[in-house]
Amino acid sequence: MPERNMTFAVIGLDHRHAYGMTGLLKQAGATLAGYLDAGEDNIVAGFQKRFPDARAITEKARILEDPNIQAVVIAAAPSERAALSIEAMRHGKDVMIDKPGCISLDELERIRACAAETGRIWSIDFSERFEVPAVTRASAMVADGRIGRVIQTLGIGPHRLNAATRPEWFFESSTYGGILTDIASHQIDQFLHFTGVTDPTITHASTANLGHPEYPGFEDFGEVNLSGEGARGYVRVDWFTPDALPNWGDGRLFLLGTEGYIELRKYVDPTGRTGTDHLILCNDNTLEYVDCSGDDLPYFGQFIDDVLDRTETAGSQSHTFRVMHLAIESQVKALAASGTP
């Protein structure tokens, strides 16, 4: 694919999601100017292995003050993401950031104000939608009316803990934001995307540490119920993926429509089909399995277009802000219900 003349750099290499974001931007035609070599050593080493030609930059100012760099990818510790986003936008850079984009409502309001003031893009790579070809296919099916109007989403996001490889910040809610702020933002994004609901109510939210007492600041289970505008949503997220599963989690999405349903087995099919991106469609006329592994991932090319054309094709800014507001609000409600200050 030809280059689109969008140049970006990576700052905040504290999470492996930076690998996918960088690789998919490059695949979509963007040019990698370099990366800030100041994060967890194993993450930086992994980045260098995947992108051996990338230039290491040891001073953040050299990235932010370079007029040729149009956008930055941020995968810092969650507690650092808001400040980095604001600093980047004030230097004229558009931002693609790992989820969660921030961890408090105050941070979110400051980001919103900065984006409005500077005219910069603040885009969260919700990888469980934007990096999953099966979601691309499901989105097209829903748009085509294959299951009627989506009236309920059920999203589950199980993850493998891999505690020995996690940095210290991963186990403290003050730095990672809590399980609903973090993981559940994916499923909340998908609820809004597929139902078209813009202003749902959080009818239930809870979190717990059910199996890891050695990490008292950590939450390993969370759930959220959403309701509004004729649709319902249920979210379950956890850190209990067993070792026998061949990947990090059996993430699934169920879309119930007025005229049928869709099930996505995003990362693995426990019934034996190989590979990823399995979709099952059932409506009044069809019951079929679809291998979606070859479908496109349009978000990254759309982000490039948005940077170059000042548009919002990758996702509206209002949607991004709303997702993070709901995720953080869910976390706050869960803590209040449990009596946690």
Could you explain the architecture of this structure?
This protein has 341 residues and is of the alpha/beta class. Helices cover 36% and strands 25% of the residues. It is built from 12 helices and 14 strands. The chain has an 8-stranded mixed beta sheet. A 6-stranded parallel beta sheet has the order 3-2-1-4-5-6, with helices on both faces. Helix 4 links the parallel strand 4 and strand 5. Helix 4 runs parallel beside helix 5 and helix 10 crosses helix 12. The protein is globular. It starts with 6 loop residues before the first strand and ends with a helix.
Which keywords apply here?
single chain; 341 residues; alpha/beta; 6-stranded parallel β-sheet; globular
Strand order of the largest sheet: 8-9-10-7-11-12-13-14
In DSSP terms, counting alpha (H) and pi (I) runs of 4 or more, how many helices? 12
Shape: globular
Oligomer: single chain
Strands, count: 14
The structure class reads: alpha/beta
Rounded mean pLDDT is 95
What's a quick, concise take on this entry?
The chain is an alpha/beta fold and 341 residues long. The chain has helices at residues 17-27, 41-50, 60-64, 78-90, 105-118, 127-130, 133-143, 173-176, 179-182, 184-195, 298-309, 317-338; strands spanning 7-13, 31-36, 56-57, 71-75, 94-98, 122-125, 150-158, 201-208, 221-228, 231-238, 252-257, 260-265, 278-283, 287-291. The strands form 2 sheets. Strands 8-9-10-7-11-12-13-14 form an 8-stranded mixed sheet.
